[in-house]
Request: fold
Amino acid sequence: MSAPQHPIQLQGISLDSIAQEFGTPVYVYDGEKIASQIKSLQTAFATVPLKIKYATKALSNIAILKLVKKAGEGVDAVSIEEIKICMLAGFAASEIMYTPSGVNFREVQQAVELGVMVNLDSLPLMEEFGSVYGNTKPACIRINPHIMAGGNAKISTGHIQSKFGISIQQLPDILEVVKKYQLKIVGLHIHTGSDILDAEIFLRGGNVLFDAALNFPDLKFLDFGGGFKVAYKAGDPSTDIAEVGTKVSAAFNDFCEKYGQKLELWIEPGKFLVSESGYLIVESNVVKKTPQITFVGVDSGLNHLIRPMMYDAFHDVYNLSNPEGELQPYHVVGYICETDTLAKDRLLAKVSKGDLLVFKNAGAYGISMSSNYNSRLRPAEVLVWEGKAQLIRKREEFDDLIRNQVEIDI
Reply:
């Protein structure tokens, strides 16, 4: 690994200057990258009626959602709060898919009252939905295709032991509940996991959808989920979107001929749209040498970026302050009272106290999975769009930390 020779720039603005203006730690997003990722999917699936439903959980800042809306696409929400955030960003209820997992039925009712379509995730939910709404509200059914795919086991969602969806082996039970309540099923959905490279995985999932769909005469769409892999370092493979688009679209068009009706093809990218757009900039607090390891302690940790600890995720790290320095090995660690190794055994340009380091691929599941662990504050967020760096979330202050605590006499 070699150090970059020039400061990282987003639309002509250096990350160094953004850190100087907004302080650290700070999340920075390149809006043009998000727009180009959306465009690449629209191009790859140009031969089918495509609907992109951005997976809001990846990065739910309202400014980011507005970029998705501006591109003419929709969203997938997994909580009533995400639904409300999407609506604040300007999405109509008809542009939002709600895919809950094991929620209280009261939340489902709130979503229906807002006009959002529900993706039914279990047979008990189908029963409860049917008993309340019958055939008065359109719905989608999430099917578990029993396909083991994706990267880390924690983000593989389509295998037989996954909590997500209704087993394809239970299709007769699904049909029985649909008939019992005359449910208005307008879509079928699968999602096999994340970090999927092979187009054949999407085709296998598609075949499960196609076979099941023949039992539902009133479908409007089939939802293939997301899971497209992005590259995390030089030489890392990523999903060939053009190949996936070509093969899946061809299979989908063939199915529509068999089905006798032109359906919409839905996909739910999250990480693919925002991961590569994001950078987490931190400052070196201390360079600590031991007999075996040199640690760089920074002003962040697993409270801001938990993916390395939770998923063994790799994020490239660069020294913005000394990009051409001699390469030396480091462990980059956080300031949390917990083992929070953000980057292990990395060759970085020589790091000194006060240097700015940047973690790449930090747009997805960074700030959205952040916490106040150790009573630490969440960082600011900045969007670079149309050549301007704009604050889209204020850095938390101490008052934010205790805002909802209630004092009592003890």
